[in-house]
Design brief:
The structure is a single chain. The protein is of the alpha+beta class. Helix content is 48%, strand content 19%. The chain contains 9 helices and 8 strands. The strands form 2 sheets. Strands 1-4-8-2 form a 4-stranded antiparallel β-sheet. α1 (10-29) packs antiparallel against α2 (34-50) and α2 runs parallel beside α8. The mean pLDDT is 92.
């Protein structure tokens, strides 16, 4: 099954983008080719750009506080395992503390590194990191893979509290949904939302064997999904001749 996710607000949209970038960074660091480490460094700079919003840190701290209060309300509930509850609360508290200890915005420590910022200023220019533009960076790319990995881990480590907070907040958000199968006759599905303020994330799983791509749109009143079929050139067209089904989850 292919999983598609759609955010209902700008805050969770940013959080999903950061998760995507942190996942990519985690893959690239452990590869050994210099070109992989070039794109790992580019990903670090992308994370800094996405996380540049002044309120990102406060948003994550607020979300962690909100989840903590929700879980605290389960204290004494006979249907809840106290050990599991304590474990979740301890994880929230640990990540909240680590994030709160980070000074300033995400990547502020890296922004003080003139060598990295010199690369950052050139990396968005097509071909801007050639050896004649950045000879010291070119030399770094010829360091042993273990040395490059060590450097990348050190730089990525300054962003680790944000990565942990993003993964925890999204994980708790996803746990708040209940998946169910829905039908899309003629490739279309719509659902009215009774209390859209409680929804933050839509998740859709579809069988890749169907060869369909969901086009999702949503607002505070309605969710609308069209199942599209790519033609030979990759252009998407509504699969109006197809009745299909998929798994839908609205996460509150």
């Amino acid at each position: 099954m292919i999983l598609y996710e759609y955010p209902f607000g700008e805050s969770i949209r940013t959080t999903l983008r950061l998760e995507h970038l942190f996942d990519r960074l985690g893959v690239l660091i452990w590869r050994q080719d210099p070109v992989d480490h070039h794109f790992a460094l580019a990903t670090i700079f992308e994370i800094m750009d996405v996380a540049a919003r002044a309120d990102l840190k406060s948003d994550l701290l607020r979300d962690l506080d909100r989840h903590k209060q929700q879980f605290m309300a389960y204290r004494g509930n006979p249907a809840i395992q106290e050990a599991a509850l304590d474990e979740v609360l301890a994880r929230i508290e640990r990540i909240h503390h680590a994030l709160n200890q980070v000074p300033g915005k995400a990547g502020q420590a890296l922004a003080a590194n003139d060598w990295l910022m010199g690369i950052r200023s050139r990396i968005s220019i097509p071909g801007g990191t050639c050896e004649f533009d950045l000879p010291s960076y070119y030399a770094w790319q010829h360091e042993p893979a273990a040395k490059r990995q060590e450097d990348l881990q050190q730089w990525a480590g300054t962003l680790a509290p944000f990565a942990e907070a993003v993964r925890l907040v999204l994980g708790l958000q996803r746990d708040g949904g209940h998946p169910h199968m829905v039908a899309a006759p003629c490739g279309q599905y719509q659902q009215n939302l009774k209390d859209s303020r409680s929804f933050h994330l839509l998740r859709l799983r579809i069988d890749p064997a169907l060869g369909l791509v969901p086009e999702i749109s949503a607002n505070r009143l309605m969710v609308s999904i069209r199942l599209m079929r790519p033609d030979a050139d990759g252009k998407l067209k509504i699969a109006s001749d197809t009745d299909a089904s998929f798994e839908l989850t609205l996460c509150a």
